[in-house]
Structure formats: C-alpha cells, structure tokens
Amino acid sequence: MLAQSLRTSLLILSGVYALCLGNNMSKYSRKLVHIYFQTQLATDWHNYTSAIVEYQTELLNMTVRMVTAFRLSVCLFVCLSFFLSVVHVLF
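Now predict its structure.
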C-alpha cells in the first residue's frame, strides 16, 4: 500500500518529462524534497511478481504442514496419555 504522498502512474510514451514544484504556501521557509523515479520493464515486473507468488505459495504450504504436524503431535500425546492411564489402572 502506498503512502498518501506517493503517486504512481503508467507512462505510455517514453521521452523527457518535466516536474514543477511550487513553494507558494511557505515561501519564507526552506523545503527539502526527495524525488525518486523508478522504471521497470514489463517482463522484469512479471518475473518479479511471479517469484513473489511462488514464494507465498511455498510459505502457505509450509504453514499448513506445520499446523498439521502440530495437530498430529497433540493427538499422539493425548492418545499416549490415555493409553498410559489405562495401563496404570490395569496394573
């Protein structure tokens, strides 16, 4: 999610772009402005998003396996406790 001050836009035409900053509201104080331009090719962006989707899928699969293993260990602990209590009562 982008912060409120950040803006993104798709530039269809390549070339030279101009940026104009105004300091009309506070002309007696200095301002420090950072401008960050980022460009990416569509194929690079597609590869990047595909890698993120694969990572998220692997993470979800690992989480499901861990939850399943935890549930199985709890079930085995309960069964073993019950078995030991029955053996203790019988002997």
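Residues 2 and 9 are 12 Å apart (CA to CA).
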